Amino acid sequence: MAFGWIDGQAELRRRAGLVRTLRPRAADAPLLDLASNDYLGLARHPEVTEGAARAARTWGGGATGSRLVTGTTELHAELERELAGFCGFEAALVFSSGYAANLAAVTALAPHGSLIVSDAGNHASLIDGCRLARGTTQVAAHADPDAVRKALGAHDGPAVAVSDTVFSVDGDAAPLAALAEACREHGAGLMLDDAHGLGVLGDGGRGAPHAAGLAGADDVVVTVTLSKSLGSQGGAVLGPARVIEHLVNAARTFIFDTGLAPAAAGAALAALRLLRREPGRAARAGEVARELHTRLTTAGLEAVRPHAAVVSVRAPSPEQAVRWAADCRAAGLSVGCFRPPSVPDGISRLRLTARADLSGAEIERAVRVIGETRP
Predict the structure, then answer these.
(1) Is the pTM of this model over 0.70?
(2) Residue 241 CB-half CA count within 13 A
(3) Which phi and psi (to 5°) does residue 79 adopt?
(4) FRET label pair with 177: which of 27, 183, 201, 234, CA 20 to 30 Å apart?
(5) Cα 205 from Cα 225, distance rounded (Å)
């Protein structure tokens, strides 16, 4: 029977407590949200939603084609200029998603004969980029510059090290300056996914590479998402102009994908301008994360110290993590639940995301619910 093997896979997932289901949310859901990636609370900000609406009224509901055909509007070009300028890079290229941006950067910058050194804790989109690239991939120990240095030293030819700046599971930060030093010793490039750093880290939210003094370097390429701190949708690659030009000509997820919808571009541009005007939002997101961590650990929970806006709370097992998240939801709190295979170390977690617009009372309520529902 066609696809008969799917039933066996479904049964294995059920036994392991790893079944995933979609849960559509209402526009007016009453839950306190610590599950989304809306770090700065901008997804529903009037300026951001008006930016989306205005772009849709001006340019239509869709981009109408790939970026190289009809999918590049003046709005896309404006967003790219301002995003590159804000983050401190020479040029930027916008994609339909952060996932597509990562696939583009890794595959286009790792041709046949090259080496990719990939951190063991990298996001799935970076891992998939490595799998699709024609270069050879070597996985390095998590956040270990010496492991990167060793791998690069054993290779003769083009090479690039690939890492998240802030890892999405525990919210820990990569040692960016040390990674850059290791790469420069061997003439290798450094590609960083700053999905969880943009809008939270760096001067006024300019990102982790900016904070590490790597913005604008000719050997550093950065990917970002527009769907977290900027409250919109899409992704971008930032870097030297010659790298961006190469992506325009070589990146398959750019050449063959429909361009980012104008509404998403308009929303992201409005959010970027708002962040530039209100840089304190970035610092506030970090403050909320640290307060959550302090309160959770004081309550006796095992939480990982956050480097940005992600706060991870360990759970005893996948089944108990799912039940814990469900009990939180029943008590009015929405939290993320990370289980294998989404976590590289096999440890299940509740994943909380700090938001700049959370009040002290909401933080207190969230910690109380998590503590009262712990397994």
Answers:
(1) yes
(2) 3
(3) -65, -40
(4) 234
(5) 13
